[in-house]
Amino acid sequence: MFNKAMSLMPQSSEPAILLGLSLQQSGKLEAAAQAYAEAIRRQPEDLRARQLLERLASVTQ
Questions:
Q1: What string of H, E and C letters represents the secondary structure of 11-40?
Q2: Ranges of residues in the chain whose predicted pLDDT is under 50
Q3: What are the backbone angles phi and psi of residue 43, rounded to the nearest 5°?
Q4: What pTM was estimated for this model as a whole?
Q5: Tens of pLDDT along 42-56?
Q6: Cα separation of 56 and 37, whole Å?
Q7: What value, to the nearest 5°, has the Cα angle with vertex 22 and ends 20 and 6?
């Protein structure tokens, strides 16, 4: 579902953020970090994606 949304909205960070949140809740932290990084790649100015990635990094250190 998220992958389909990401392909339909290639400039939007939102599908990648939602994927990251879902993965994080499932305990798949590395995959969540990759999804947040993809959100930042899509929209570098997205503060929410940056905060989620930073928060995840601080928890996993």
A1: CCCHHHHHHHHHHHHCCCHHHHHHHHHHHH
A2: none
A3: -140, 85
A4: 0.88
A5: 999 999 999 999 999
A6: 11
A7: 55
